[in-house]
Amino acid sequence: MAIRRRTFLTAIAGSALAAAALPAWAAQPARYASAFRNAEGYGLAILNALGRIERFVPLPGRGHGSAVSPDGRRLVHFARRPGSFAIVLDTAGRRPARRFEPPSSRRFNGHGFFSKDGGLLYATENDFEAERGVLGVYDAKNDFGRLGEISTGGVGPHEAILLQSGRVAAVANGGIATHPDYPRMKLNLPEMRPSIALIDLGSGEILARAEAPAEWHQVSLRHLAEDGHGTIWVGGQYEGSVTDKVPLIFVYSQETGLKPLLNPKIPYRSMNQYVGSVAANRSGREIALTSPRGGVWLIFDSRSFAMRSVRRVPDVSGAAALGDGFLVTDGNGVVWSDTALAVGDADISWDNHLIGFAVDDL
To answer: Mind listing the domains of the chain with CATH numbers?
Structure first.
């Protein structure tokens, strides 16, 4: 792990003070968005806090993750990796949805985020010919024209998040090389080097980079959430044997670097080598992780790293803050509010991710 200490400390100063620094949508989410599939195809739905669908738009293919502007007025939804479309949605429904695409030499990798002022959109992308990851930079004030890109310092970036400082991004480089000519084929499993990178968005400088330990180099680091103490929680998916016992949850901080959670109570064997979503609650004191392949929903205390609960929900998928708890979806059309069933629709299969956002002034 290489760290430029002085630059790093300056960039993240104050980022771990309290949940007050969290994005507005995390403080009081009132609407949620998730991709889904039904008999008619793929779509993106807007839900209320009770889990009821208020509106939806069709998607040209399977969707994955969303980015919401700081004011909650725009949502950009990305295609599943490797993807060639992003959909811009006016969350108030006053304007029709529209589409933009990456350059032909790039593919979207399913996730992105807005800058603190909402003027820029950053998208994880694959430079497939060079086998490197980039953050594509798009002008959110001018029809999402592409302005350039920033190296992520690794291969196969998946989720990227804006940290509480508003100036630094954390990127999960999954380590898996892909090419659009072989859309779902993983081309470099023996040589994988997954990593977490912290990037200064002003300069493009990689402030810190931490690789997974060599013994777990096939745990593709993919999904992220920052807790109220500034620790980054990482969910992975294992590309080795289904019978291997490996950690799927890691935590990253400047003090400790990248460390796996090795608590023997964590039901890794039940998780079928896969973590699908990671989310912090409003206070940042709890973290939810879901495993759709294992049907396992975990909640952790973010300060002690202790596991607070294990819940068995078949095909559990997206997770997002709901006050001091969580709203969670599953592939069977059910939206859960913590331990209670919120609402179910057997005609819908919710996809991997759920995002909350405020609706003030809409």
So the answer is: 22-263 (2.130.10.10)
DSSP 5: H
Distance of CA 2 to the CA centre of its chain: 24
Coil, strand or helix at 20: helix
Query: How crowded is residue 309: how many other Cβ atoms within 10 Å of its Cβ?
Result: 12
Copy the structure tokens of residue 247: 């950690």
Query: Could you tell me the two tokens for 296?
Result: 């396992």
Tens of pLDDT, residue by residue, the chain (362 residues): 333 333 333 333 333 333 333 443 344 568 999 999 999 999 999 999 888 999 999 999 999 999 999 999 999 999 998 889 999 999 988 888 899 999 999 999 999 999 999 999 999 999 988 889 999 999 999 999 999 999 999 999 999 999 999 999 999 999 888 777 777 678 777 789 999 999 999 999 999 999 989 999 999 999 999 999 999 999 999 999 999 999 999 999 988 999 999 999 999 999 999 999 999 999 999 999 999 999 999 999 999 999 999 999 999 999 999 988 999 999 999 999 886 777 888 899 999 999 999 866 54
- Asked if 178 and 206 touch (Cβ cutoff 8 Å), the reply is no
Are 311 and 267 a contacting pair, CB within 8 Å?
no
Total-model pTM: 0.90
DSSP alpha helices (H): ranges in the chain? 5-12, 24-27
Going from the C-alpha of 264 to that of each of 261, 269, 310, the distances in angstroms are 9, 11, 13
